[in-house]
Design goal:
six-stranded antiparallel sheet; single chain; 7 helices
Length: 305
Amino acid sequence: MSAFSDTAQPFAAPDAALPATSEAVDGSTHRFACHEVWGGNRSIQSPVELPGIRGYIYSQPVVGARGGDVHYLSVCGSGLMSRVCLADVVGHGEAVAEISSLMHQKLRRSMNRTDQRSMLSDLNATLYQQGIDAMTTAAACTYLPPTRRLSVSYAGHEPAWYYSVAQQKWDRLNIEHPRKGLFDIALAVEKGVRYSRRKVRVRTGDRIVFFTDGLLETKNPQDEQFGSVRLKAALEASTKQSCKQLAAHVIESVQSFAANPETIDDDMTIIALEFVDNLQSSAFWHLIRHRLFSREGIIYSEDAK
């Protein structure tokens, strides 16, 4: 795998009357607006841009795979909030398509919610009614550029990897569960599951990488899995490169490990994101920041951690 597309999928609307502007990955200037990108079970290699974030998404479905990967990226809250969701649906063909459609409906209705935990709870309730065949793992994050607050949640999904500029290292973005009960298990398995979150105050240049388990579970001729150790090594080897180059290096490492890419029997998706300053400051922008985020407890309630 050597050809990664340079055709951008910026989240933009040139005529949107919003205070924040950005220079897109293709060099054009645009204003952020409520927008979404949704996809699954199809090949995609493309740059993406959201408020405070630039990155790259690579997704490759496999014919006859065990399930289907779907991704959802949105901008809303008047351009103040970025949302990313990556899911791995257990199932095949029409079943995956139906589940993906249900997920899309729920996710777009939740575009303006600042807390992705309620979104996952709604998804779980909807998919639970479909039965165990709808089992889905998911990772979701919300980023608020004015406060540089990132919030990440998982539903039975592999934790993301996070690169801290301050610490100069990659670590898994795990979440601890201090309370008893059902927490963070895959969607559609049980009713009444509660979803926790990990909050991070990001710095410019920090990165986060989401992926599906098809990447980790790829096997070599000796029946060994690629696994987290090799993934971390691939990430460390490409830390100084662009998100596109990082994603390419990880995928190429997995394919090289498999020896024969045709033996890979599961979908693979990786979303590599970097936190950037792509919002234009203005008096109005600072006013919005003060009005919306000065009472942080309203935005980030501490219930159901």
